[in-house]
Amino acid sequence: MEREFDFIVVGGGSAGCALAARLSGDPAVSVLLIEAGPDASPWQVRMPLAVDSLLTSTTYNWAFESEVEEGLGGRVMAHPRGRVIGGSSAINGMVYTRGNPQDYDEWRDDHGCAGWGYADVLPYFMRMECAKSGDDRYRGRSGPLRVTRPKPTNPLNAAFLNAGREIGYPISEDSNGPQHEGFSVAEQTIVDGQRNSSAAAFLNPSVRARSNLKISAKTLVEKIVFEGRRAVGVKCQTANGPKVFKSRREIVLSAGGVGSPHILKLSGVGPADELQSHGIAVVHDAKGVGANLQDHLDLPIQYTCKQPVSLKRSTEWPRKAFVGINWFLFKGGVAASNQFEVSAYIRTRAGISKPNLKFEFFPLSISHSNFKPYPQEAFQIHCTVETSYARGSLRLRSADPSVAPLLQFNYLSDERDMQTFREGIALVRELVASRSFDPFRGAEIEPGEAVRSKEALDEWIRHRATTAFHISGTCAMGRSDDPNAVIDSELRVRGVEGLRVADASIMPVVVTSNLNASAMMIGERAADLCLGRAQLSPSNEPYWINPNWQTMQR
Description:
- The chain has 554 residues and is of the alpha/beta class.
- The chain has 14 helices and 24 strands.
- Helix 1 runs parallel beside helix 14 and helix 5 (118-128) crosses helix 14 (516-531).
- The termini are far apart.
């Protein structure tokens, strides 16, 4: 492989695949995409219901761990992140959700991220997607990313949607359109029964055939090479030994919420005292690198089911064998869906203008003790705090690039997050107590009917909450006078030249949703910035905010 390129993209994940594809669409530039993991798409990646095996894999997964989290009862949290072409989009839950429009307006207005308001990012979401449903003013029809809307057939899914309507919540016909808030069918990055990762969507065979795009998989980046303050190359360990790839124009880090700040610090861009303590020469003292670490926490509330309509039998022999055969032969059946087919974004109290909680319904219950399905018919509703106030940090453990950094999230260190969880549990109980669930509702497994007091709920929350896999914020975008803002609104790393960041690490505040869609959008936007193209014309379409949000919870 040649050693010099116009653009080098570090990280072949959600943002990196979109970015490399869009950059190489200009035949006048050469692009190198570097990925630490393999360039592979085994059946476990392609089968939607095989996601559990990927979350425990070390072949396609960095398998990071947090430090001890006092807010979680002293537990250490596992943090799977994709280590394969496609990144975390190759091992995630395949939920396609953009976030709330207010998220992006807050980036622009509260954090000084010019060009990142909802009107600015909507055209990029539309450019990248090929959706078959929704309003043409909000949804793309011809992009590389095919987005599908499932047709839920399980009666438990219908009960969930009907229960939401019954107790007074709005129904959104398209949560990725003008109305994010409410109960809705959940869109997926699943096409013809197979996962549609960013690699499958953006790096399709015709894109891979471009002579100006090279992909270097199984390549560990050791550091960015600087000449003075200008980034000029990337030092790597490849399958064929050490190499330095040179960049004629720019290097873009798209290695994710862990990888991008880690590489910056290894390269001498980060808090000077931390770098010097590991013997790393300081190129630029940037205190914000690795700060502002954010994630979403999740709780599954579980119930037994009075009718045999859950997925329990599909997890047992002999039906389990037929589920696999159906998928391998026809790409159909239970395994052709992530089974997260209905969800809700809601506000847990009056006085907040956008949802702070997500419900995701799953027609099966998994034991917390051994991660296996319960032996009885059961279902669970995932309760995810979407506006987390906890902030953590990523710090170097070693100057060795093969050693994972320290991740301290400080989960549940802010009382507002605990309050949202308490409110969420009460709302789940109200939902399941509705008439719509009467035919199915059995006993409450977790937390259990006896867990009612504030003290008992808090204890249960601290010992059951787990990550929703949404690491972000560690190379935050923001104003020039913000000492913790690592990059500017054009994604350029402040204090150096020739270096940008484009992935979920740039989020000043994590969006109110899963991150895959927004990360791909960031890659789309970054390509235009790198190539000096004019921004797509803003789309000033209105979006829905509950008119009574100041005084009413629903």
